[in-house]
Design brief:
By secondary structure, the protein is of the alpha/beta class. It folds into two domains: 205 residues, Quinone Oxidoreductase, Chain A, domain 1, CATH 3.90.180; 138 residues, 3-Layer(aba) Sandwich (Rossmann fold). It contains eleven helices and 16 strands. The strands form three sheets. Strands 3, 5, 6, 7, 8, 15 and 16 form a seven-stranded mixed β-sheet that branches. A six-stranded parallel β-sheet has the order 11-10-9-12-13-14, sandwiched between helices. Strand 15, helix 11 and strand 16 form a beta-alpha-beta unit. Helix 1 packs across helix 11. It is globular, with a radius of gyration of 20 Å. It starts with a strand and ends with a strand.
Length: 353
């Protein structure tokens, strides 16, 4: 089979690989559509995970089941499925402790294009199929289903980590596709005011559509100074970080009220440490919480998030601004995500016949 692989940091291309086999609990699938993630850019062009040789890229897709193991109960060849970007080992002790995304090691629930071959291939392997796959409802297109694999669950997880409550004032830093879903999640969880930070007009417009009451740009000055001024120096109850870098946390701490929480789902692709401002953190005693988490995977979560689309509680169509057809466009879509033109939110490549 053909697969699109990272050959080394900064270099990728099509390679020939053997079709994966299937274990008793597993499945082999073929993609119906795939999406490009900024994490793919970090991995390939920045070496954020270190050197990888001949590793198939990609972790966002929906698919058709081709083969299942003898112990798989709920899926069969021909089923159309949502494939989450995070596919934990559900029998691990970490899963029993409530942190399945870290099964068998920190971040090791993130297998595709990290510790095993990803989904940018004619066929790919899914461990623990009954626990990780979810049936794709007929009402959801393959393009929208790709958003359910990573963008929706990651963006929503920021709101979960921060513990948004009714009436909260929330700051969302970064309004790419994940940040836009953080805005949507904040609104769904009852935030009264949602301040979104981003620069591209297409993302600013989408943020307002998803529930942002205010949109600011870091190009207009430090984020913390802008937010403090517009909140009469009271700050915010929650901060959701879906963009920026290691220096972003200092600004988030400065605007956070005592008792508030920062929920980070941003992939920090560079830097060695994060600086926390001592005084604004209450000299260590300000009850300002910082929580960072990899999105949960699993069938139940995928089914619940899919139901938001089925019952028109969430519309992810604005995210997919560039839709291509055929494997020949995959590299074009990848480079588009790297370069991020002004009219881009998310590229998707449709592969079904």
């Amino acid at each position: 089979m053909k697969a699109y692989a990272m050959l080394k940091i900064g270099q990728s291309g099509w390679v020939e690989k053997q079709k994966p086999g299937v274990g008793p609990l597993d499945a082999v699938c073929r993609p119906l559509a795939v999406a490009i993630c900024t994490s793919d850019v970090h991995t390939l062009f920045e070496g954020a995970l270190g050197e990888r040789e001949n590793l198939t890229l990609g972790h966002e897709c929906c698919a058709e089941v081709v083969e299942v193991g003898e112990l798989v109960k709920d899926f069969k060849p021909g089923d159309r499925v949502i494939v989450p970007a995070i596919t934990p080992d559900w029998s691990s002790v970490e899963a029993q402790a409530g942190y399945a995304m870290h099964s068998n090691g920190m971040l090791c629930g993130w297998k595709f294009s990290n510790v095993k071959n990803g989904v940018f291939a004619e066929y790919f392997h899914v461990n623990d199929a009954d626990g990780n796959l979810a049936h794709l409802p007929d009402r959801i297109s393959v393009v929208d289903a790709c958003m359910l694999s990573d963008m929706v669950p990651t963006g929503f997880h920021a709101a979960e980590l921060a513990g948004i409550e009714f009436g909260d004032t929330v700051l969302v830093i970064g309004i790419g596709p994940v940040g836009l879903m953080s805005v949507a999640a904040a609104a769904l969880r009852g935030a009264s005011r949602v301040i979104a930070v981003g620069t591209r007009p297409i993302c600013q417009a989408a943020a307002k559509r998803y529930g942002a009451t205010d949109v600011i740009s870091y190009k207009d000055g430090p984020i913390d100074e802008q937010v403090l001024k517009m909140t009469d120096f009271r700050g915010v109850d929650r901060v959701l970080i879906a963009g920026g870098d290691c220096d972003t946390f200092a600004q988030a701490v400065r605007v956070l009220r005592p008792g508030g929480c920062i929920g980070n789902v941003n992939y920090l692709g560079g830097g060695d440490s994060i600086a926390i401002p001592r005084v604004e953190w209450g000299v260590g005693m300000g009850h300002k919480h910082i929580v960072g988490g990899l999105m949960p995977g699993g069938r139940l979560r995928m089914e619940k998030l899919a139901s938001l689309l089925v019952w028109d509680r969430l519309d992810v169509k604005p995210l997919s601004t560039h839709v291509y057809h055929g494997w020949d466009h995959l590299e074009e879509a990848l480079f588009l995500m790297r370069d991020k033109p002004q009219d881009l939110i998310k590229p998707v490549v449709v592969l079904e016949d």
